[in-house]
């Protein structure tokens, strides 16, 4: 894949657009997590209530290091043992560094440092984590092909980063770091 596609995706993110891209198991849609209008556009596309919150995907641990600062040594080791990889952790955000429109009704924030080449390349070109949620309207199955993304969102102009899904069969596991509870099984 040409590096220019990732630079174009990063520019689309800076412009407040929603992008679609392959992830570990399903196609995702994303945007700039600090642009409330972009996040609302994404939520409207999916008919997803803001209260549910969304995941942040990062291309490197450095991009989310500020969220690891307040963790205990054991918590940090637990998280870092799974990253980069297909594991999403709900991390505490005691300094409220992440907007509420990302966290929804939750006090913590769901974060994944992806090992998927497209997700990593998009985040590295953008320089920050991005919103990452499955590419499907609420109630529909997550898109597994670029064609399904195009059908689901036919009336919307999405910037689509072509590519292949990773080897996961199901969306990433989500665990709550504070409670240790399993939120979503992979």
From TrEMBL:
User: Is the keyword Transferase in the record?
Assistant: yes
Instruction: Report the locations given in the UniProt record.
Output: Cytoplasm
Q: Which residues form a coiled coil?
A: none
Asked whether the UniProt record includes 4Fe-4S among its keywords, one would answer no
Q: Which Gene3D superfamilies match?
A: DHBP synthase (3.90.870.10)
What EC number(s) has UniProt assigned to this enzyme? 2.7.7.87
For this UniProt record, the keywords arranged alphabetically read as follows: ATP-binding, Cytoplasm, Nucleotide-binding, Nucleotidyltransferase, Transferase, tRNA processing
Enzyme type, top EC level: transferase
Chain positions covered by the region annotation Disordered: 164-186
Q: What does this protein do?
A: Required for the formation of a threonylcarbamoyl group on adenosine at position 37 (t(6)A37) in tRNAs that read codons beginning with adenine. Catalyzes the conversion of L-threonine, HCO(3)(-)/CO(2) and ATP to give threonylcarbamoyl-AMP (TC-AMP) as the acyladenylate intermediate, with the release of diphosphate.
**Can you name this protein?**
Threonylcarbamoyl-AMP synthase
Organism encoding this protein = Neptunomonas marina
The gene behind this protein is tsaC
């Amino acid at each position: 894949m040409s590096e220019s596609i990732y630079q174009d995706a990063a520019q689309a993110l800076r412009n407040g657009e929603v992008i679609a891209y392959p992830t570990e198991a399903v196609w995702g849609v994303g945007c700039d997590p600090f642009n409330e209008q972009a996040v609302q556009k994404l939520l409207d596309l999916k008919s997803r209530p803001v209260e549910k919150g969304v995941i942040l995907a990062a291309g490197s641990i450095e991009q989310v290091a500020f969220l690891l600062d307040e963790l205990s040594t054991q918590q940090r080791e637990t998280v870092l043992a799974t990253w980069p990889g297909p594991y999403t952790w709900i991390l505490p955000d005691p300094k409220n560094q992440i907007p509420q429109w990302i966290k929804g009704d939750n006090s913590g924030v769901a974060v994944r440092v992806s090992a998927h080449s497209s997700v990593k390349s998009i985040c590295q070109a953008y320089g920050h984590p991005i919103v990452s949620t499955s590419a499907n309207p609420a109630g529909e199955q997550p898109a597994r092909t670029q064609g399904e993304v195009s059908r689901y969102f036919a009336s919307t102009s999405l910037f689509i980063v072509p590519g292949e899904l990773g080897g996961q069969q199901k969306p990433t596991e989500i665990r709550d770091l504070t409670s240790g509870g399993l939120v979503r099984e992979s």
